[in-house]
UniProtKB/TrEMBL annotation:
GO CC terms: nucleus
Protein name, per record: NmrA-like domain-containing protein
Record keyword Glycoprotein present: no
PANTHER family in alphabetical order: NITROGEN METABOLITE REPRESSION PROTEIN NMRA FAMILY MEMBER (PTHR42748), NMRA-LIKE DOMAIN-CONTAINING PROTEIN (PTHR42748:SF29)
Length: 310
């Protein structure tokens, strides 16, 4: 049986690992993952499952072009935080502002995305290109909240596909993942005074937050986009889509512990809890628009997929 080739950029990460494992279980596909460290435990585990592991770096265009050779499908997810976190830690240690970390991470991620997109556009065998972006916070907020560069960088890459490579855009679908199920903001803190637990949230209790386990579910949605859906599909991918109140109730029921939703302002999160505007501008946008997909038009949800029972 003739097999097609999917190349998974960052196959050792949560999203990429899920995609790699899903396609490794499909007899019509073979899997190649790219990683900066082919000897890592995650890379070794995927190699043992049958993946081809190649060393490639999104900062090195030649290595990416080589990794994409003969690809029929490519999954791309870029990693802003790998740059931002160590830079911010170093600036914190020096007592300096974190803003330059955001600027550098934005510059790095958009450059990595541009190189990957340019390389994909050169692959004659390519049939499907899947990119994992976030909302354009600047667009969604009308320019009011410009500082969530982790989202803005991914939005820039999605726009670059459309404007710089229209032929590649015709092969492209976008997967917008819901909030990760292990996000610290979805984990309550104990209230020692009451013996209860506190969900400290700046979002209204009626706000609907899509939740996904990226390590388990990303792959099934990417498979659907590649095998079942037409290019050009924008998918909001999630496992559940509860309100904030439902998140609190669900956690309480599952853990057998009483929990409360504690409202807090965005400004208080910054001043009292030290959260950066890098994280908070996107929350301000979600709070004011009441929409997790603010500014994104024409997207579908899992129940609208042709294979809706995935």
């Amino acid at each position: 049986m003739s097999q097609k080739l999917i190349v998974v950029v960052g196959g050792t990460g949560k999203q990429g690992g899920s995609v790699a494992r899903t396609f490794l279980n499909l007899p019509t596909w073979r899997v190649r993952i790219t990683t900066r460290n082919p000897t890592s435990q995650a890379a070794t585990e995927l190699a043992n499952l049958g993946a081809e592991v190649v060393q490639a770096d999104l900062n090195d265009a030649a290595s990416i072009e080589k990794a994409f050779t003969n690809a029929n499908a490519i999954f791309l997810n870029t990693d802003y935080w790998a740059v931002w976190r160590p830079l911010k830690a170093a600036l914190d240690a020096e007592g300096k502002s974190y803003e330059s970390a955001s600027e550098k991470a934005y510059e790095t991620e958009t450059g990595q995305g541009r190189r990957a997109v340019d390389a994909a556009a050169k692959v004659p065998s390519l049939e499907r290109f899947i990119f994992s972006p976030l909302i354009d916070v600047i667009k969604a907020s009308g320019g009011k909240y410009p500082r969530s560069q982790h989202a803005n960088a991914k939005a820039w890459i999605a726009n670059y596909i459309e404007t710089a490579h229209p032929d590649l855009a015709k092969k492209t679908s976008l997967i917008y993942l819901g909030g990760y199920n292990d996000n610290p903001s979805l984990t309550p803190r104990p209230n020692e005074a009451t013996g209860r637990y506190m969900f400290i949230m700046p979002l209204k209790n009626t706000f609907r937050m899509p939740i996904i386990d990226p390590s388990k579910s990303t792959g099934k949605f990417v498979r659907a986009l590649i095998e079942d859906e037409q290019p050009g599909t924008k998918l909001l991918a999630y496992d559940t889509f509860p309100t904030i109140s439902e998140i609190v109730s669900s956690w309480s029921n599952e853990n057998g512990k009483e929990a409360d939703l504690i409202p807090i302002s965005i400004q208080a999160l910054h001043e009292k809890m030290g959260m950066t505007w890098e994280h908070l501008d996107i929350l301000s946008t979600l709070d004011e628009t009441g929409d997790y997909m603010a500014g994104v038009e024409g997207y579908i949800e899992p129940q609208q997929l042709k294979a809706s029972k995935i």
